[in-house]
Automatic annotation (TrEMBL):
UniProt similarity note: Belongs to the RecA family. RadA subfamily.
Keyword Metal-binding: yes
Region (Lon-protease-like): 348-453
The keyword ATP-binding is assigned to this record: yes
Short sequence motif named RadA KNRFG motif, residue ranges: 249-253
Lineage, uppermost ranks: Bacteria, Bacillati, Actinomycetota, Actinomycetes, Streptosporangiales
Protein source organism: Marinactinospora thermotolerans DSM 45154
Entry function: DNA-dependent ATPase involved in processing of recombination intermediates, plays a role in repairing DNA breaks. Stimulates the branch migration of RecA-mediated strand transfer reactions, allowing the 3' invading strand to extend heteroduplex DNA faster. Binds ssDNA in the presence of ADP but not other nucleotides, has ATPase activity that is stimulated by ssDNA and various branched DNA structures, but inhibited by SSB. Does not have RecA's homology-searching function.
InterPro entries: AAA+_ATPase, DNA_repair_RadA, P-loop_NTPase, RecA_ATP-bd, Ribosomal_Su5_D2-typ_SF, Ribsml_uS5_D2-typ_fold_subgr, Rubredoxin_2
Protein name: DNA repair protein RadA
Entry remark concerning the domains of this protein: The middle region has homology to RecA with ATPase motifs including the RadA KNRFG motif, while the C-terminus is homologous to Lon protease.
Keywords: ATP-binding, DNA damage, DNA repair, DNA-binding, Hydrolase, Metal-binding, Nucleotide-binding, Stress response, Zinc, Zinc-finger
Length: 453
């Protein structure tokens, strides 16, 4: 007897398949995402008619695949030159971070060279028009449509033939071909697949706006990130004007570039030189502050770390951080107390950055340690001083990447002296770099009159 076809099961998050149902995906380890998709198809492969004949690679026309600049230099920097015709971009970010504002400005700039279709599923066209007036992003070639059906969206594309399509957002769109509510796994997968096929067939640069979950990851199936060509993450604190655009995936350019923007009442502005936002201008040095240079992708940024160590009468001292990893701060405090003899464990400790920037790179450890030590001893670091290096648990100062690039940026902004790891033998004209092996040596150089309490 012929065996009956068995059902297969697929993970809705990553697409992993199995022949039996399991509660937990064997690939992405997600719970409750494995669903039945029907019997497995077996048998010989039948050849079908090709859509276009294969040609030698030397005869392929590459002119149509060149990126077209958007008009926003910071966005073009992250994309690797601009938007590629037929490319599909997924822009994700928290609510209120400025995704729609950014894309509306991009749409108005791109409308100067051809029609642009902006499809909104979350707002009315009147609301989008009001925002466009406030931003000064009005153009006769920028078309607005409020739709939640991907079939109706395809009708607008047939009528307008845009060079750029923006869908805000993919979670609000639905397809009549599959069941499920908008935003569900099945609907998001089908809508994204339909839009990608439409973009590739018509050669339309397409931007999809995606929601994020509470932990900051992109909502919907993980398969969505694999289908698109570019994944961008728009980050920023709603209490700060600074916004950063990072490339998580990019088939057409680098993935280590970062774009910096400033969100204002009149729109969003690119910041080609954002280092000044992360520094405090003061006449005299203040204890508890230290400047460092962090690398955001390939871009060096000057940032200031501030610390306040204050005595307390509470049995359990307070610990508060802003813009810094609390676990990293606790580790540096423990190294200072154990390896440098600074008794700060019984004091309140507050550590933060300037300008709302988030610093998670290990190269800021040395600057954080010097800021904590300066606040504890009430001694200020010299003017024009920076510190770069990772601090180990043994109190050693470890090497970090891109020291020469960091020092060049510090020299450009007027800094004259730097403490770096001892094996960073990359001199830069105009700035004195002193190599140190451990934290104690760094404290003696930066705070020569250090008093241990």
């Amino acid at each position: 007897m012929a065996r009956s076809a068995k059902s297969t099961f697929r993970c809705a998050e990553c697409g992993w398949t199995t022949l039996k149902w399991v509660g937990r995906c064997g690939e992405c380890q997600a719970w409750g995402t494995v669903e039945e998709v029907g019997p497995a198809v077996s048998g010989g492969l039948v050849a079908a008619k090709v859509s276009s004949p294969a040609r030698p690679i030397t005869e392929i026309d590459v002119e149509a695949a060149h990126a077209a600049p958007t008009g926003l230099e910071e966005l073009d920097r992250v994309l690797g030159g601009g938007l590629v015709p037929g490319g599909v971009l997924l822009l994700a970010g928290e609510p209120g971070v400025g995704k729609s504002t950014l894309l509306l400005e991009v749409a108005a700039l791109c409308a100067d060279s051809g029609p642009v279709l902006y499809v909104t599923g979350e707002e009315s066209t009147g609301q989008v028009r009001l925002r466009a007036e406030r931003l000064g992003a009005l153009s006769s070639k920028l078309f607005l449509a409020a739709e939640t059906s991907v079939a109706a969206l395809a009708g607008h594309v047939d009528e307008i033939a845009p060079k750029l399509l923006i869908v805000d957002s993919v979670q609000t769109m639905s397809s009549p071909d599959v069941p499920g509510v908008p935003g569900g796994v099945t609907q998001v997968r089908e809508v994204a697949g339909s839009l990608i096929r439409l973009a590739k067939a018509r050669g339309i640069a397409t931007v999809l706006v995606g929601h994020v979950t509470k932990d900051g990851s992109i909502a919907g199936p993980r398969l969505l990130e694999h289908l698109v060509d570019v994944v961008l993450q728009f980050e920023g604190d709603r209490h700060s004007r600074l916004r950063m655009l990072r490339a998580v995936k990019n088939r057409y350019g680098p993935t280590d570039e970062v774009g910096c923007f400033e969100l204002t009442d009149s729109g969003i502005i690119g910041l080609p030189d954002p280092s000044g936002l992360f520094l405090t201008r003061r006449n005299e040095p203040v204890p508890g502050t230290c400047v460092t240079v962090t690398l955001e992708g390939r871009r060096p940024l000057i940032a200031e770390v501030q610390a306040l160590v204050a005595p307390t009468a509470l049995p359990q001292p307070r610990r508060a951080t802003s813009g810094l990893d609390s676990a990293r701060v606790a580790m540096v405090m423990a190294v200072l107390e154990r390896r440098a003899g600074l008794r700060i464990g019984s004091s309140d400790v507050y550590a933060s950055t300037v300008g709302g920037v988030r610093l998670g790179e290990p190269s800021i450890d040395l600057a954080l340690a010097l800021a904590l030590a300066g606040s504890h001893t009430d001694l200020a670091l010299p003017r024009g001083f920076i510190a770069i290096g990772e601090v180990g648990l043994a109190g050693d100062v470890r090497a970090v990447s891109g020291v020469q690039r960091r020092l060049s940026e510090a020299q450009r902004l007027g800094f004259t002296k730097a403490i770096v790891p001892h094996n960073s033998d990359e001199p830069v004209d105009g700035i004195e770099a002193i190599g140190v092996e451990d934290l104690g040596e760094a404290l003696r150089l930066a705070l020569p009159a250090k008093q241990r309490r």
